[in-house]
Design brief:
heterodimer; A: 799 residues; alpha+beta; Phenylalanyl-tRNA Synthetase, Chain B, domain 1; OB fold (Dihydrolipoamide Acetyltransferase, E2P); Phenylalanyl-tRNA Synthetase, Chain B, domain 3; seven-stranded mixed β-sheet; five-stranded antiparallel β-sheet; B: 339 residues; BirA Bifunctional Protein, domain 2; 9 strands
């Protein structure tokens, strides 16, 4: 919110610089986000008067002007055509640095010296709304009564300093100049100047406000409705000082009556609405909820169809204003308005907030109402506006105001405690200092022993308990007091034992393994596009994704039900930008709704997902990675063929622990590879970390190292392709019986010599006897048994 | 005889010393100890020694022999070492050739800050907890003293799913759940993803926070300050300073923004901190008694403080990541720099 330094000075004597004031406000919680000097680009620009204009001797389109700039006369060459002898104009002199980037220097134009430039309104950063003539295509011609030599920022009232203040949502009372002035008073220890709320009325007149309007309030969402009437209205340009203030806070000056309502909005934080009285049907104002289907066309030129949740200000038949948000075109101030009814109301903040959201219109008015306008504010706002009407002489204030109020607004008594405040803050601030701070903030405080008896003014609705008082005290006392605090860590807390989350601890190990295995960790949005399931060929319940109702784009509109999308997308991105090879992983969540639309919170499951594309990397490399990962949580696992739709049905496996599928891995399905524009030789894996974290801690059951030598034999057999290493190994183990010590495949060989559909497998078999050294005879016997079994069960032929 | 032996010894040692290589040393060995060697010759003459002198001479002979043998062996070893050294020199490789084996991967900067903070907090006595990311309006807002249509809801644009279910906008949602179930005193942290309907160069719709909550009977704003100073010192390094600025959160009162002195310029002002010398890293405050009351904790007896750290900012500052969006693009050329 923007306010100005000079405007604040209307309410409090400020003897510190704008920077200093901004710093103080920021340190007290009113963060000044920006300080803008209006005249930053107006130095070396003064009011000048053209004394004489002569033709340029060398150029037809230029003229040479002698210009009175106060202390001296200077010569300026211009091409402008709207200047004339006697014209009062803004003159930029050498050293000027205008808002459009033009820097003024002494120059020679076709041999004749020019010591400056006349300025247009645009070059001074102003427009026609701000100053008459500023919008013309040419030099800004100033009124004759502007004093020659005056710096232009003074002459045009562009010498204010603007503060952009971030007011926190709890401080609705500071959404105004007067609100921030109260803070300034407290910060500087200065009293508040009296606000002029006076306006002359004819107290004997029989003409009262009731002759112009009657008000009924039919809704509980209106806490207070005040109205005044103004006759003999003159709609004209507001005086420069008022336009200057509005312009400084980015409000476009329009005409007296509208400007006054805006001025009071900024100054007092009280939104006002001005009706053209002749358009109030039946001279009746009714504050009510809209009827279903009622329509209104408002000042932004849109027409809205209303419902009963929207509050309106209506006349006897039609809605005239969407209450607190925006006025209708049917009753607004026009150039020929003669009689005005001025509204100052207070509405329920929730209702205004809801309406503003519903119709998507946010105005200066709704911005204040939805944070909460205090009930007492209406009266001050209305009186201030009527004061300005009489000050500007733009109308005659009618006797009496209408005031319908359903909510009381009084100072509240709360009791605080000095020791409690100090124990919240952990520092020692004396009671007298607390009283001083609170008094300055308008919270009248009496110290009775440890008790602080506080009278909280109505506008401080945010203060209700000791913590609130503590905050007021410390923000004014200064948070830098904590720079000196010197106590031990957790000096006032009991010892607690720290513990990581079991799953996070497990993931930490796995992530470490993956880094060792060359994987880069990624972090991805858990929000995915709505066609995710389609791209992954998912047909099961994972098709049902939770969709956010107000997504930024479809690309991030749904919660992922599979990690595969994220990893494939990030791989795809990398391949697109030329990073061909990648080993990537992510530890994240998937979100599985129990039903859609959501009635209860979904199940959130944690997953560790991996994707690899690398020259030479295949299923068995991925298997190696899986073994590495699984070894962090359990000693063994089984595999079975996977039916995961996005994996290649022949080159994928489910990982089984305790008869449960705890993960899967394999080559990506070619259709999915196409959908994501990644290579078909892409391998993906996923582990159910939610489940794995629940497994009992990994323990080992170690057997004694054999006392007698282990004997090794290698055999190579030829079998059909469909015989698996696992079943052959199992058969070898069982054939070896008690002498089995281990079996390991060490070579696979395929060739046309072996025959179509055949492969040769070479196993290394290790045998050992607990009680003796094996003889050659023992070993041959066992190997023969093995070969016989393999031949019988699998048709294996010794090679 | 004795003289002769000593002379042999003297000559032998001289010859050994003078041997230039293994070959000449071997000649020396033959010259003295060989079958026709000088010492062997002396031994052969033992018969001419008077029997009573024999033991004495014998022992001298042995002594001389041992002495020569030792000198020979030492010299031999020296030659072997020399030969080996020469051979090894010849086997010199280019040590700047690349390493073999699997090149290491990397941890994502966001996760690395989270890991680090979790370790710091666990060390300080915090228990790590988690909560759902798809959260009820109640836990995300209402239980955090932010009822429906509260102006503070404007501070965060939420992604709604239904009227009462949304993507959590803050890890503070975990606070409300833990406050309902835990018995004080306790210290918890809750790391995780959070969501806001906001996307530009400095805002990501999905981002990470780490929430902390301490509840005990006598903790205060001063304890909060000391704890955060320690935490930030461990994360950002020795000499890191922490400063409070007043702020507002519905669930803490008083509330503060917490700035950390810029680790890049140590408070002098630089590009990283936009010249301010400080970085806005987290929000914190004393738990609002209303939050305790909503959760059913005796607000007269217990006090608490809470903090919420935005992880992305720290991840960027600690690793000089130039742009927020870089972190979610996961370009391998970016990730590889975190090795």
């Amino acid at each position: 919110m923007k306010i100005t330094y000079n405007w604040l000075k209307d309410f409090v004597d400020i003897d510190v610089s704008p920077e200093e004031l901004a710093k103080k406000l920021t340190n007290a919680g009113m963060e000044v986000e920006e300080i803008i000097y209006q005249n930053e680009h107006l130095h070396h620009v003064v009011v000048g008067k053209i004394l004489k204009i002569e033709r340029h001797p060398q150029a037809d389109k230029l003229v040479v002007c002698q210009v009175d700039i106060g202390k001296e006369t200077t010569q300026i060459i211009t091409a402008a055509t709207n200047v004339f002898e006697g014209a009062v104009v803004p003159v930029s002199l050498p050293g000027a640095d205008l808002v459009n980037g033009v820097k003024i220097e002494v120059s020679r134009l076709r041999g004749v010296e020019s010591r400056g430039m006349f300025c247009s309104g645009e070059e001074l950063g102003i427009d026609e709304n701000y100053f008459e003539g500023a919008g013309v295509n040419g030099i800004l011609i100033l009124p004759n009564d502007f004093k020659v030599g005056t710096p232009i920022d003074k002459a045009l009232m562009l010498d204010d300093v603007i503060f952009d203040v971030g007011v926190t949502p709890n401080r609705a009372d500071c959404m105004s100049v007067i609100g921030l002035a109260r803070e300034v008073c407290a910060l500087l220890g200065r009293p508040m100047k009296k606000v002029n709320l006076n306006f002359p009325i004819d107290i004997y007149s029989k003409d009262t406000v009731r002759n112009y309007v009657n008000v009924t309030v039919e809704t509980a969402n209106c806490y207070r409705y005040m109205a005044g009437a103004i006759t003999d209205v003159k709609i004209q340009r507001s005086p420069l000082w008022m336009r200057a203030r509005l312009n400084a806070v980015d409000i476009k000056p329009i005409s007296t009556m509208v400007d006054i309502t805006n001025y009071v909005l900024i100054e007092m934080g009280q939104p006002l609405h001005a009706f053209d009285q002749t358009h109030i049907g039946g001279q009746k104002i009714v504050v009510r909820q809209a009827r279903e289907g009622e329509k209104i066309t408002v000042l932004n030129h849109n027409t809205y169809t209303l419902d009963k949740d929207v509050m309106v200000i209506a006349d006897e038949e039609k809605p005239m204003v969407i209450a607190g948000v925006i006025g209708g075109t049917n009753s607004c101030i026009e150039q020929d308005t003669k009689t005005v009814v001025l509204e100052a109301a207070v509405f329920d903040l929730k209702n205004i907030r809801l309406t503003s959201r519903k119709i998507g219109v946010r105005t200066d008015s709704s911005a204040r109402y939805e944070k909460g306008v205090n009930v007492a504010n209406a009266e001050m706002g209305l009186c201030r506006a009527l004061h300005l009407v009489s000050k500007l002489g733009c109308g005659k204030v009618v006797r009496g105001v209408i005031d319908i109020s359903s909510k009381k607004n009084e100072a509240r008594d709360i009791v605080g405690s000095v020791s409690e405040i100090n124990s919240i803050l952990g520092v020692t601030i004396p009671a007298s200092k607390m009283k001083n701070i609170l008094d300055n903030l308008g919270i009248e405080t009496k110290v009775v022993g440890d008790r602080l008896e506080c009278k909280v003014p109505p506008y401080r609705e945010d203060i209700s308990n000791c913590n609130d008082l503590a905050e007021e005290v410390i923000r004014m006392y200064g948070y830098d007091v904590y720079d000196k605090v010197d106590i031990a860590l957790f000096e006032n807390a009991r010892v607690t034992e720290g513990q990581n989350h079991p799953r996070l601890a497990m993931e930490r190990k796995m992530r470490g393994v993956l880094v060792d295995y060359g994987f880069n960790e990624t972090v991805n949005y858990s929000l995915v596009p709505s066609n995710m399931a389609e791209k992954l060929l998912l047909e099961d319940e994972r098709k049902n994704m939770i969709r956010v109702s107000n997504p930024i784009s479809d690309e991030i509109s749904c919660l992922r039900t599979s990690m595969a999308h994220s990893l494939l997308s990030v791989l795809s991105y990398n391949q697109r930008v030329g990073n061909k090879d990648a080993r990537l992983f992510e530890a994240g969540r998937i979100y599985l709704p129990k039903e859609l639309p959501l009635k209860e919170l979904p199940v959130e499951k944690n997953r560790l997902a991996l994707v690899v594309h690398e020259n030479g990397f295949d299923f068995f490399n991925m298997k190696w990675v899986i073994e590495g990962l699984m070894s962090t949580v359990c000693s063994s696992f089984a595999l079975q063929r996977s039916t995961e739709p996005y994996l290649h049905p022949g080159v994928s496996a489910d990982i089984i622990v305790d008869d449960k599928v705890v993960g899967r891995f394999g080559q990506i399905h070619p259709l999915v590879a196409k959908n994501y524009e990644v290579s078909e030789k892409t391998y993906y894996a996923e582990l159910d970390t939610s489940f794995l974290a629940e497994l009992p801690a990994k323990r080992y059951s170690v057997k004694a190292v054999p006392k007698f030598p282990v004997v090794e034999r290698d055999i190579a057999i030829v079998v059909d392709e469909d015989k698996t290493v696992e079943e052959l190994s199992k058969a070898i183990k069982s054939a070896c019986g008690k002498l089995f010590y281990g079996v390991k495949l060490f070579d696979i060989y395929r060739s046309s010599a072996l025959g179509e559909g055949k492969k040769s497998l070479a196993f290394n078999i290790r045998l050992s006897d607990e009680n003796k050294t094996l003889t050659e005879e023992d070993v041959t016997g066992v190997i023969n048994k093995v070969l016989k079994a393999l031949s019988f069960r699998f048709g294996a032929v010794l090679r | 005889m004795e003289q002769e032996l000593l002379l042999i010894k003297e000559n032998a040692l001289k010859d050994i010393k003078g041997a230039l290589d293994a070959k000449s040393l071997s000649d020396v060995k033959v010259k003295y100890l060989g079958k026709a060697g000088e010492l062997t010759a002396v031994l052969r003459n033992m018969r001419s020694v008077a029997p009573e002198d024999r033991p004495k001479i014998g022992s001298i002979v042995n002594e001389v022999r041992t002495c020569i043998e030792e000198a020979l062996s030492q010299k031999e070893k020296a030659f072997e070492r020399e030969a080996l050294s020469a051979k090894l020199q010849g086997e010199k490789i280019d040590i700047t050739e690349p390493s073999k084996g699997q090149e290491k991967g990397s941890i994502h900067p966001i996760m690395s800050v989270l890991d680090e903070l979790i370790d710091i907090c666990v060390d300080m006595g915090f228990t790590v907890v988690e909560g759902p990311e798809v959260e009820s309006d109640y836990y995300n807002f209402e239980a955090m003293n932010t009822p429906k249509n509260h102006p503070a809801r404007d501070m965060q644009d939420s992604f709604y799913i239904t009227e009462n279910i949304l993507l959590r906008t803050q890890t503070s949602a975990v606070q409300s759940r833990e406050l309902e179930t835990r018995k004080p005193p306790f210290k918890i942290i809750a790391p995780g993803k959070t969501y806001r309907n906001d996307s530009d160069s400095t805002h990501s719709p999905v981002f990470h926070q780490l929430e902390g909550l301490v509840v005990d009977e006598n903790v205060s704003m001063a304890d909060l300050k000391i704890m955060l100073s320690e935490m930030m010192r461990r994360l950002y390094g020795e000499g890191t300073k922490v400063r409070f600025r007043p702020s507002y959160f519905p669930f803490t009162e008083p509330s503060v923004e917490v700035d950390v002195s810029c680790p890049n310029c140590h408070g002098q002002g630089c590009k990283t901190c936009k010249g301010t010398g400080f970085l806005e890293i987290l929000g914190a405050g004393v738990v609002n008694p209303k939050v305790f009351e909503i959760a059913g904790i005796d607000s007269k007896k217990y006090k608490g403080f809470a903090f919420g750290i935005g992880i992305e900012r720290s991840a960027m500052v600690l690793n000089s990541v130039p742009d927020l969006r870089t972190m979610y693009r996961n370009d391998v050329r970016f990730l590889n720099q975190m090795k």
